[in-house]
Design brief:
- By secondary structure, this protein is α/β, with parallel strands linked by helices.
- It folds into five domains: about 160 residues, Distorted Sandwich (Glucose Permease (Domain IIA)); about 80 residues, 2-Layer Sandwich (Histidine-containing Protein, Chain: A), CATH 3.30.1340; about 120 residues, Glucose Oxidase, domain 1; about 100 residues, PtsI, HPr-binding domain (Enzyme I, Chain A, domain 2); about 270 residues, Phosphoenolpyruvate-binding domains (TIM Barrel, Alpha-Beta Barrel), CATH 3.20.20.
- It has 27 helices and 34 strands.
- The strands form six sheets. It has an eight-stranded antiparallel β-sheet, with no helix packed on it. An eight-stranded mixed β-sheet has the order 19-26-25-21-22-23-24-20.
- Strand 6 and strand 7 form a beta hairpin.
- The N and C termini lie far apart (about 80 Å).
- The relative contact order is 0.07.
- It binds phosphoenolpyruvate (PEP) and magnesium ion.
- Phosphoenolpyruvate (PEP) binds next to strand 28 and helix 22.
- Magnesium ion binds next to helix 22.
- One of its GO terms (biological process) is phosphoenolpyruvate-dependent sugar phosphotransferase system.
- Belongs to the PEP-utilizing enzyme family.
- Its EC number is 2.7.3.9.
């Protein structure tokens, strides 16, 4: 073992690494060290050694010191994006250097104005070293002693080149679209664990223990990265070969071709983590949990109407309060190990019960098995902390670091880690670990930051009574699924929702956007009565649901269902759906890791058509992008994906994906039962391009009969030129969710604008009228399939504006039909006309409430 001192590589204010405004560095995930806010523009070597690598963006450099410590010197924060601008390298890879040698010069003005911060880090990135004696919290001169590194050996100061003295290295290019995300990382870990010695993966200026899924994911690798596999000890050559070969073959992920142009999703290498979104300034701290029995009213935004009484199941990512001090390692370590075993057994049991989700549970087990997680927690326990505190801290740090990476898939893994954090804490407190929404007890009202569409996809019927989200928007895709399940939902409750304790009795009121915590007994009783009365009314409405829907004056309005999964279809028929007006095909394939084949798609569409017993099925082509990323479809990282590659834009960019889907639809029997609808149309030429594909595929399948092809009106421009789009479309269907977000310039997933995101805004209504008028030029029908079609206040207005078909969430169809049977077209037209001349959605809602007080 040796100790070396590192000299300050820069002059400036020296600070602890923990204060650096970058979570990965601050949490020590890159390595141990310190930082300097520089007052000079030259980075100098802190030790004698050899330059291991100068980053291609010239903002960072790693020097291997005598003794083997690898010292990363990283200039500024978020400087990789400057792509070398403002930096001049004065050394090359492999060059020997002495303490004080100039490594990189930089333009302080340019870098200072373009980067998040000039604070520069010096950290030891490889295993087997510790640091102490940091000089921090004062000005430091370049060359002054900055810190001491212990560990390693002279032998470790091997030459930069490959295998020598029991160490082997091999470089390989990563050719998988999303880098080392959880699954490939787990495959790599499995191979590395077979080797008794250390195995490290180096990428750019970082290194990670190859036996840790979390550490590998934390590398933030992307397609095209050069990875170096390094192993030590007997058999190092073999393991390096094996792992490099595995990486080269994709570690179980499909390989992505890399031409001169980087493929979608692979564009910019991401070396520095992107800071996680800041909580809104206006939002208050969550505060301590509400006391048992404390009566509280929280206000949010209506997402799915309806009321429910139930018991809270918390699904927040934020920390539970746990005692910091433990009873000593002899007690706490076995407690933690037992809790981990309990959760592992629970995951195995869940995988057995729900084989369709087995891959998710397996990924959770891999994470639980992660040596870095356990080692981190044991290190805290060794200092006297409780198992709960130690586990929470370690899991939280790692989850935060993953969440800060640019790739949304990594953020999902962070959610997995938080889930495991909760489960282990539950096991430590003696409660049964909750393995997710799939395992809810009946009557649960789930409170969460935000629920993912994929989580809701696994909820068994009847268990989930209500949902309250601290964040989220009223038309997000998770809300759409909640609506399909008929689960009253309130969003944008704010962080106060985090204070509601597990098991608290609550009333969720989706009609008013309220959550009543520990309400008085009379309110619980009144809500139960109202829920029961509503169920009776619903049953009555269902009895007539099969009849056609005619208004009081005889006007025929068609009511269809929006479907997202095969199992929704029979319920929709019972509710009285006359067909499916929108099949969100992307929901069928949300939880998959690879694209569905044409045959798989065909089978699903056919099952839905069969379940609808001959009623028409409008199949929307894949609408991915925005808040619906698909793991198997790498799209470029976009500044603003909602305004980027979405809907038809993706289909035209990935024509094979679209063609496979078109073929699958064309194969459904009986011929003529399906129609094709294309999302996010902005111009007739897009629909024309899809029509050409449809015609070509039809010819290839030797199908003579045409198929109806419709355009969704979601982009304001499409509503404005509906007369032009109607020339190439057989029908139009208005997606009010997107139309509203684009017209009002309010993100449909953003809780801060959730209360104003209302499809009844007169601006949206005017566009709907414009679309109806334009469509009439070519005699095209206009449907509404966005959330407004399921809103009882919107239905009379839409009908008054000339819409003749509504496609609603199945749970409301019987009620909607009953409501429309009581309306007269003349009244609807009058109120709609008045609504167009108002200033706000609130005013419109008041008009509707005056005209039809019982809605
Ligand atoms: C809409 O935008 O209104 C719509 C129906 O499509 P989605 O909600 O799936 O984006
Ligand atoms: Mg849409």
């Amino acid at each position: 073992m040796t100790a070396i001192t590192l000299a300050a590589p820069l002059a400036g204010w020296a600070m602890p690494l923990e204060e650096v405004p970058d979570p990965a560095f601050a949490q020590g995930l890159v390595g141990a060290g310190m930082a300097i806010d520089p007052t000079v523009n030259e980075l100098r070597s802190p030790c004698d050694g050899v330059v291991l690598s100068i980053h291609r963006a010239r903002h960072a450099c790693t020097v291997r010191a005598t003794g083997g410590a690898e010292v990363l010197l990283h200039l500024g924060i978020d400087t990789v994006g400057l792509n070398g601008e403002g930096f001049t390298a004065h050394v090359r890879d492999g060059q020997p250097v002495k303490t004080g040698d100039l490594l990189i010069g930089f333009d302080m003005d340019l870098v200072g104005s373009r980067a998040q911060s000039l604070v520069s880090m010096m950290v030891v990135v490889n295993d087997g070293f510790t640091i102490d004696g940091r000089t921090v919290n004062r000005e430091i001169a370049a060359g002054e002693t900055a810190m001491t590194v212990h560990g390693g050996s002279e032998a470790a100061a091997a030459p930069v080149a490959a295998a020598s003295g029991g160490t082997a290295e091999r470089s390989v290019i990563l050719r998988i679209a999303h880098g080392l995300h959880a699954r490939p990382a787990a495959a790599l870990v499995a191979a590395a664990k077979a080797h008794p010695g250390a195995v490290t993966i180096l990428c750019r200026d970082r290194s990670a223990n190859a036996k840790s899924v979390v550490a590998l994911m934390g590398l933030g690798t992307t397609l095209g990265d050069r990875l170096t596999v390094r192993a030590g000890g007997a058999g190092a050559e073999g393991v390096v070969e094996t792992i490099a070969g595995l990486i080269d073959s994709g570690l179980g992920d499909p390989l992505t071709e890399m031409g001169a142009e980087p493929p979608a999703g692979a564009a910019a290498p991401v070396a520095a983590p992107v800071p996680a979104p800041m909580p809104p300034a206006a939002e208050e701290e969550a505060g301590p949990p509400f006391a048992e029995g404390e009566e509280v009213l929280l206000k949010g935004t209506i997402a799915v109407p309806g009321q429910a009484v139930g018991t809270v199941v918390r699904r927040f990512s934020s920390r539970m309060r746990v005692a910091e001090e433990g009873e000593g390692p002899a007690v706490e370590e076995p407690r933690l190990r037992r809790a981990l075993e309990t959760v592992t057994a629970g995951l195995a049991e869940s995988a057995r019960r729900m084989p369709e989700h087995a891959a998710i549970f397996q990924a959770h087990r891999e994470l639980l098995d992660d040596p870095e997680l356990l080692d981190g927690a044991l290190a805290d326990i060794a200092t006297g902390k409780s198992a709960d505190w130690a586990w929470q801290r370690t899991a939280q740090l790692q989850a935060d670091a993953l969440a800060a990476l640019a790739d949304p898939r990594m953020a999902e893994r962070a959610a997995d880690l938080r889930d495991l954090e909760r489960q282990v804490l539950a096991a430590l407190s003696g409660k049964a670990p909750n393995v997710g929404l799939a395992d809810l007890p009946a009557g649960s009202i789930v409170l969460a930051d935000e629920i993912l569409p994929s989580e809701l996809a696994g909820v068994p019927a009847g268990r989930l009574a209500g949902i309250g989200m601290a964040h989220g928007g009223p038309t997000s895709h998770a809300v759409i699924l909640a609506a399909a399940l008929g689960v009253p939902t309130v969003v944008a409750l704010g962080r106060q929702a985090e204070r509601v304790p597990d098991g608290a009795p609550v009333v969720i009121d989706g009609n008013r956007g309220e959550l009543h915590v520990s309400p008085p007994e009379d309110m619980l009783a009144a809500t139960r009565t109202a829920v029961a009365a509503r169920a009776v009314r619903r049953e009555e409405n269902r009895r007539l649901a099969g009849e056609d829907c005619r208004m009081a004056d005889g006007t025929r309005i068609e009511i269809f269902a929006n479907l997202g999964r095969v199992s929704d279809a029979p319920g929709a028929v019972i509710e009285g759906a006359e067909g499916c007006g929108l099949l969100r095909t992307e929901f069928l394939f949300l939880e998959r890791q690879s694209a569905p084949s044409e045959d798989e798609q065909y089978r699903q569409y056919q099952q839905i058509a069969d379940a609808l017993e001959g009623r028409p099925v409008v199949i929307r082509t894949l609408d991915v992008g925005g808040d619906k990323p698909l793991p198997y479809l790498p799209l470029p990282k976009e500044e603003n994906p909602v305004l980027g590659l979405r809907g038809v834009r993706v289909g035209l960019r990935e024509p094979e994906l679209l063609r496979a889907q078109i073929r699958a639809v064309l194969r459904v029997k009986p011929v003529g039962v399906c129609r094709i609808m294309v999302p996010m149309i902005a111009s007739p030429s897009e629909l024309q391009a899809v029509r050409t594909m449809v015609d070509e595929e039809r010819a290839a399948l030797r199908r003579a009969e045409p198929i109806e092809l419709g355009a969704m009106i979601e982009v304001p421009a499409a509503a404005l030129i509906a007369d032009r789009i109607g020339a190439v479309a057989d029908f139009l269907s208005i997606g009010t969710n997107d139309l509203t977000q684009y017209v009002l310039a309010m993100d449909r997933g953003n809780p801060y604008v959730a209360a104003q995101l209302d499809a009844l805004h007169p601006g949206v209504l005017r566009l709907i009228r414009q679309a109806v008028t334009g469509a009439a030029v070519h005699g095209r029908t206009v449907a509404v399939c966005g959330g407004a079609a399921s809103d009882p206040m919107a239905a009379p207005l839409l009908i008054g504006l000339g819409v003749t078909e509504l496609s609603a969430t199945p749970a409301v169809i019987a009620d909607l039909k009953a409501q429309i049977r009581g309306l007269r077209l003349e009244d609807c037209r009058r109120v709609a006309e008045a609504a167009l001349a108002t200033d706000s959605a609130d005013e419109v809602r008041r008009l509707v409430a005056e005209a039809w007080p019982v809605i």
